[in-house]
Amino acid sequence: MKLLKGSVVMAEAGRDKGSYFAVVDADEKYCLIADGKSRKLANPKRKNIKHIRITDSMIDLNDITDKRLRNTLKQFGEAE
Q1: 29: closest CA among 14, 49, 4?
Q2: Is 20 helix (H, G, I), strand (E, B) or coil?
Q3: Structural element, H or E, at residue 47
């Protein structure tokens, strides 16, 4: 599955292991992810795509705020 803007991913390595993020941008090796709390949309984290797991969900990132992103991603953590 190709990483697209708005894809929901789970970090599988690093200090943010087990957390859900939304992809802000991606290329063939790295992606930029944000969760609205520790990593805001204005300052996303650069993450190697080998260290994330892609879910089947998508979020529309057009005109979204950090608070709405946080609340949306919270639902994924509760679903586990």
Answers
A1: 49
A2: strand
A3: strand 45-48
Amino acid at 28: E
Token look-up 């190697």 returns 48
pTM of the model: 0.90
Q: What is the pLDDT of residues 24-66, one digit of tens each?
A: 999 999 999 999 999 999 999 999 999 999 999 899 999 999 9
**Residue 41: left if φ>0, alpha if ψ -120 to 50, beta else—which one?**
alpha
Token pair 């650069």 is found at 46
Q: Which two tokens stand for residue 74?
A: 């919270």
Q: Are 73 and 6 in contact (CB under 8 A)?
A: no
Q: What is the C-alpha to C-alpha distance for residues 2 and 31, in angstroms, rounded to an integer? A: 11
Q: How many angstroms separate the Cα of 46 from the Cα of each of 20, 70, 79? A: 14, 18, 26
